[in-house]
Amino acid sequence: MKKMDLGKDNINKLLFSFAIPCVVSMLINSVYNIVDQIFIGKGVGTVGNAATNVIFPLVLVFGAVASLFGNGCSANLSLKLGEGKKKEASHSLGSFITVTFFVSIFIGVLSYLFLPQLVLFFGSTETVYPYALSYGRIIALGAPFVIFYTALASVIRADGNPKYSMILLVVGAIINLILDPIFIFGFHMGVEGGALATVIGQAVSFILALFYIRRMKSVKLERKDFVPNKSIFRIMSLGLSSFITQMTVLVLFVFMNNVLTRLGANTKFGMDIPLSCYGILSKINSLYISSILGIAIGSQPILGFNYGASNKKRVQETLKKVLKINLIIGLCFNLLFVLFPDVLVRFFISKTDVSYDLFLEFSTLFCRSFLVIMGLNALEITTSIVIQSLGNVFKATLVSFTRQILLFIPIALILSYGFSFGLNGILYAGPIADIICFLFCIFLFHSEYKKLSFDSLTKLERKTLPEISSTDKPFVITISREYGSGGRYVGQLLAQELGIPFYDKDIISFTAKEAGFSKEYVEKIEEKNSSVKFENNNDDRLFVAETKVIQKLAKHSCVIVGRCADYILKDDVNVLKIFLYSDEESKINRAIKYYGLSKDLALKEVKKINKERAKHYKYYTGRDWFSHFNYDISIHVDRFGIENVVTYLKTYFDKK
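^ that's the sequence the OP posted. Answer follows.
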């Protein structure tokens, strides 16, 4: 797969490359459950569908744990790569793999041991109980497979390989699709056959995920990286929003299963029809949720990388596109559920089933009440994921928690029991919670978007390059200098004496604008030590942007300090290239006096920074920074004194 530049490539192209495979992957994850539901519904009937619905909260637990580690690691990896911290990225990735593997086994064992109690807690009726237990035991055995490969799939997308992430899930789904009818109808295994087909598909996906670990592109993993470290807590904090999102859905499922059976018992629908119908419509609804999540999660690497690189404009552009796409998807699914509810559920029940007519009637009622404005949820899901991508865990978690826990459940209980609306109270609580949550998310999304706006930039960041007159006859002075030699001060005084502009720190803001990064990020790149520099392609982008800036500045007379300006302007005739240096003691004394460093620290800093400047110069020019062949004049500043150096250079400049 062609390497993509998250900081520079077209946003539409990047979203298509990342989001489409992600959407397909998420949809396939939903298809796992839907395929089982269809075959079990046709082969076993309403109680079979109800059984899969009872076990679905357990599947949500597996997904929540996978999201906690997978989405957290994905966001962390993107942020660290955007910041250029590859070593930290590899340490956290290795820690994630080890911890996720053992946690997934632990979750599987607990699920199997406590399954009888869980089935009752999840809202099973007496009729459905044996079917749910048989189905759930096999599903619990597949917990390590599904948790690990689902978590790693998110990381593989952030690694720049969304296609492999998609393939990983597609293969498992195809196996499940093939084996379901064989086990259910061919071997007459009923719900156990559906569960076994699912787990076999998950096991294959798990094996494919293991193979990818050694093929990571963005970082190279070493054995020591797999030792768990404190970075796992950072990963879990970033994935907390996704975890809570899944867990709130779990709470909603358990709540709905229990109240639908109890309140349904007092209606013509009975206990099993609402339970079964809610399960089916929730699985179909998961196609909508998966599409929204797929777009949002697919945008995570783009958002995280550019936010880590302080490229605020690209973050804004991505946010607008993601929100627009998701709202359109939400509207389309909303219309489908409201206009064609009976068409959607007919695939899941046989016409010979005695409850067929009541099943269709309740499905229509549910879609046109509980799900009547479900499209508004697109904003809630998008806001939660994108805020998480920007590292704001608390707000992302608050969004995930608001709709299900703070709004829906209290409203449903008040309407159903407080106002005695019964089953209708549950159904009407859905759209009420959706409207309130939608308004809250508009406010939250807007506040986060405003933080990225142009108005938040500093005055220096807004500064623009000077307009160049075509009548100018420029003469440029470039000053390369050792750290502590006083070269910057010489440049300032010389520019004042000559009455021409002086450029040093201003170049940072000009370069930031040229490259599409913030001033702070460019400063951070310049301050990196040599062991980190050049590992991130952003350094090369900044050098290219800096080159363009210097070439434009050189179209009028000026003094430019550092940044390989002598090399960039080497072919220009009217350029005076100067190198300023000093003895070690003078450099140390100047560092102590002007930078407030201790003597020992000043010595280390002088040696370190000059070594970095030489390495940077060598990397981009192929030349020795100290070689006198690069310059027209080399001056030992402290032998002559700064004022004398300025006077000499001014005299030389006037003669030229």
